[in-house]
Amino acid sequence: MHKLNKLGYIVLLLICFSCGNKTKTSEAKTQESDKTNQTPNIVFILSDDQSWTDYSFMGDENIETPRIDQFASESLTFTQSYVPTPLCSPSLATIITGLYPKDHGILGNDKVYDRVKGDRKASQKNRAEAYKPIISAFEKQTTLPDMLKEKGYLSFQTGKWWHGNHKIGGFDDGMTHGDPNRGGRHGDYGLEIGRKGLDTINSYVDLALKEKKPFFLWYAPFLPHRPHTPPQRLLDKYLKKTDSEHLAKYWAMCEWFDETCGQLFDMFEEKGLTENTLFVYVCDNGWRQDPTKSGYMKDSKRAPYDMGIRTPIMYKWKGKITPKMDKSTITSSIDMVPTVLDILGIEKPENLPGLSVLDEKALAERKGIFGEVYAHDFDTIENSMFYNMAIFPPYKIIIPDPVRKKNEVVQLFNITEDPFEKNNIAESHPEIVEELTAKITAFRAE
User: Fold this and answer.
1) In what helix (H) or strand (E) does residue 46 lie, and over which residues does it extend?
2) Which residues contact 110 (CB under 8 A, 6 or more apart)?
3) If you count Cβ atoms within 10 Å of the first and of the last residue's Cβ in the chain, which end, N or C, has fewer?
4) Structural contact between residues 106 and 138, judged by C-beta atoms closer than 8 angstroms
5) 44: number of CA atoms within 13 Å, CB side?
């Protein structure tokens, strides 16, 4: 009896030890599963009016961008990437919806309106009235913040925003009121972010942490966009590099923007959020500074050339996305929304033309992307079109509208051999022109 009890005791101990091990194993699996299924915070970082060449990691010998350089080295970075149009408002609308301009309906910065010479208030009123139906139509679009709601995300807007109040874009909170009677047009109070610090972002992040919810942050500062008013210390630094004050101011603005990105990264690091945050970077459109005045060169902003639409696009999620500097794969800002949806396991809506950049097979099978340029003050697609572009490496075609650009010719470039588009080879490659023209025709009919 005594032996039996002792044996039974041993068996009981073995059973308990086994159960304990199973419990620990189960707990470990649960922890690993929780780690694997983390819902990352998402941050879109958007620079404003900056050429694809204007970063030190992209080879610029004058501009210093140490924080973005580091970010690029830690990201899946595509240096041969594009936005579909070289103008702020329609480009930002693409980034938040994943749609081409022809599909989301924002073709330019302003709807055609009566500009009253010498009467700014009357002009602003006319602009606001003309833009109202554009805002109403855009409100019906499904934006990334709308899609993230099913996963319990809070969404915050800071910086540039063209389409009325931030809530039009599906954001829960934001800096932009969008009221034209109070100066609302392209960001209003939102334009202070970065230039006047990041306190608002800090408050938004603390709110999300308090509510224990994942969040999406739209950081689109008015940088390096005009007015080019950099801190004096940065201006002094760049005045030593050039005789052009205009170049020095622009270069200083690029570094100022870089500094604000560093402040953002540091904030997330201090809050312990870096490892569970997906950071995505893109520029809304290009800018090549005119050294003789404060404006831009005509082959950049609002132009169909790569100086207007090319940008590096970067995706960083520490420990989850393997860093890589990809200098040949074509991606677009239309891919940003699908990539986020893929990461979160949300089914991509059928109307989105982009793809997840984490889908290597789909990227390899992609043959090309498209671009569109419309009038700054736009009406309909039919009467506002300036250019159509198709980028199917190594070729890029630019087709001018036969009415509004009737004095211009079709241009074809080998952008692999001629990245600055100096040599139009359309006449010597009629078969390529015909093929890409047909692709554009099919694209416009979609």
Assistant:
1) strand 41-47
2) 127, 130, 131, 376, 377, 378
3) N
4) yes
5) 28
Number of Cβ within a 10 Å radius of residue 380: 11
Domain spans of the chain, in order of start = 38-367
Find the radius of gyration of the CA atoms of the chain.
25
- Check whether 2 has a pLDDT greater than 50: no
CA separation for the pair 33, 15 (Å, rounded) = 26
pLDDT bucket at 155, cuts 50 / 70 / 90: very high
DSSP SS3 for 409: coil
Bond into 227 cis (ω within 30): yes
Question: In which band, very low, low, confident or very high, does the pLDDT at 19 lie, cut at 50, 70 and 90?
Answer: very low
The two three-digit tokens of residue 140, written as one number: 């019906």
* Coil/strand/helix, residue 398: strand
Closest CA to 331 of 350, 358, 351, 304: 358
Output the pTM of the full model. Answer: 0.91
Q: What is the model's pLDDT at position 168?
A: 98
Angle subtended by helix axes 245-270 and 66-73, to nearest 10: 50
Q: What is the pLDDT of residues 118-134, one digit of tens each?
A: 998 899 999 999 999 99
In this prediction, residue 183 has a pLDDT band, given cuts at 50, 70 and 90, of: confident
What DSSP string runs through 105-173?
A: ---SSEE-----TT-HHHHHHHHHHHHHHHHHHHHTSPPHHHHHGGGT-EEEEEE---SSSGGGGT-SE
Q: CATH number of the domain at 38-367, please?
A: 3.40.720.10
CA dist 156 and 164 (Å) reads: 15
Asked if residues 235 and 3 have their Cβ atoms less than 8 Å apart, the reply is: no
